[in-house]
Amino acid sequence: MKRIKIIELLNQQNLGIEVNIKGWVKTKRLSKNVAFIAMNDGSTINNIQIVIDLNKINEKELNKVNTGASISVNGTLIESQGSGQKTEINANSIEILGEADPDKYPLQPKKHSLEFLREKAHLRFRTNTFGAITRVRHAMIFAIHKYFNDKGFYNIHTPIITGSDAEGAGEMFRVSILDPKNPPLTEDGKVDFKKDFFGKETNLTVSGQLEAELAALALSEVYTFGPTFRAENSNTSRHLAEFWMIEPEMAFYDINDDMDLAEEMLKYLVKYVLDNCADDLAFLSKRLTNEEKNKKQEERSMELIEKLKFVLENDFVRITYTEAIDILKNSKPNKKKKFQYLIKDWGADLQSEHERYLVEKHFKKPVIITDYPKIIKAFYMKQNDDEKTVRAMDVLFPQIGEIIGGSQREEIYDKLLSRMIEMDIPKEEMWWYLETRKFGSVVHSGFGLGFERLMLFITGMSNIRDVIPFPRTPQYAEF
Ligand code: 4AD
Ligand code: MG
To answer: Is the Cβ atom of 37 under 6 angstroms away from ligand 1?
Structure first.
C-alpha cells in the first residue's frame, strides 16, 4: 500500500479508502476494547487518531506502541466517532518500526520547558512547538526566494570564508589549518599566515554585502541569503554566533528606495505566513498566550496573529536619528533614569531598550531610523553633506528592536577611500571593492535582514535559540 502523509490524509474527502501511514506516536490511550493512538509525521501540526481493536493486536506489540516510537499503520479512513477530529483511521494492522523505551525517552507527553528542550535539540523537532517553528521557517525561506525571484532579483552565493571584515568590527572567527601550539613565525615573531592554507589570514564572513555589491554593479538587483558568523560575546536572547542573513543589494536605489523595499518585503513575508501557515500560527499564538498568562496585562505582547496583521496594515514610521534622540532624551524612562543606558548627548549608540521604547511605547508601530552619526556606523555608508551623519537606515520592530540594518553605499571613490583610512580599514586588501568605484560607479543601496530576528517576530518566540534548529552561542556548540 502507498504511504500517504498525514496532511493529505486530513484533507482527504474520500471516506473508506485504505491507506498506509508512517510516523511517530504522540500518545496512547486505552479503553475497554480499543486503543487510541495519536500519531504525527511532521507534515502538519495536527495528529491523526488511530483506533485499533484490541483483538487485532497482541499485548506484546501494543506495549511497544509508546510515545516516541515509530510505527507504520494500515487502515481505513473513517468518520470519527469522537469529538476532537473529523476523521480517523480504523487500523487493520500496526507494525512497530522503531521502539522507544518509555522509561528512557526524554520527551514525555507533558509540557517541557524550552530550556530543557534546548538540551534535547536532537529530539525537540518532535514537539508541537518545534514542528511548527520548523515548518514556518521553511515557509519563510521559500517566500524570501519567491519574493526576490518575482521582482527580478538574482540570488548570488557570496563566500563564507573571507579575508575581509565587511562590518569592520573585528568580531570574526579565524579559519586556519596552522598548528595553534607551534605556528610558523615570521622574522619579527608574528604568526606567518603566508604559510596557512590560503596564504593569508582568513575568517568566517560576518556579511555577504561587499561581494553582493560587486554583483549589483553588473546585474542591478541581487540578493544573497547565507550563514554569517559573529564572534561577539553577546549572551542575549537576540544574538547568535551563527545566524542567517538576507542581503539584497540594488544599483540605482537611494536610501528611500532601500526603505521602500525593506518595508514591502517585510509585509510580503508577514502576509505569506498568514496566508500559508494558518494551523501552525494558530498553535504558536495559543502557546504565546499561555506563556504570558502569568505576566501583568501591560507586559503582555499583542496576540500573535493580531500583531502580524497590525504590521501589515500600518505604514512604518520614518524618522532621523537626530529626531529619535530628541524623543528619547525627553522620554519618561530617560528622565526617571529607568533606561540602563541614559541618553545624554547626540552621538550615543541606540541600545535595544531605546529601540523598543520608540516602537512599543512612543510610536506603537515599526520605525525606520535614518541618518545615524558616522562614528557609530560602518565605513561603506554614504556620507551626508553635513559631514556628521551617514545614509544608514535601521528597521526596528516590536519585541525585537533592530530587525534590519542597511544603507545607501558610498559610491564616490575619494570619499570611500578617505573614510577607510580614517577608520583603519586595510585598503590594500580591499582593492577590489575600491575598484568598483573607479569603473562605472553608481548610486546603490542594500540592507541585511537577520533571518532569526524575523523568525522571532513571526513565531512570537522570545529566545533566538528556539527559532534556529541548532543554535551556536558563547560556550555552546552542541549537536
Ligand atoms: O546591522 P548588521 O550588522 O548589518 C550588516 O551586516 C550589513 N552588512 C547588512 C547590509 O547592509 N547588507 O546586521 C544586519 C541584521 C541586523 O539588523 C540583525 O537583524 C541581524 O542582522 N543580526 C543578528 N542576528 C542574530 N544574531 C546576531 N549576532 C546578529 N547580528 C546582526
Ligand atoms: Mg546593525
So the answer is: no
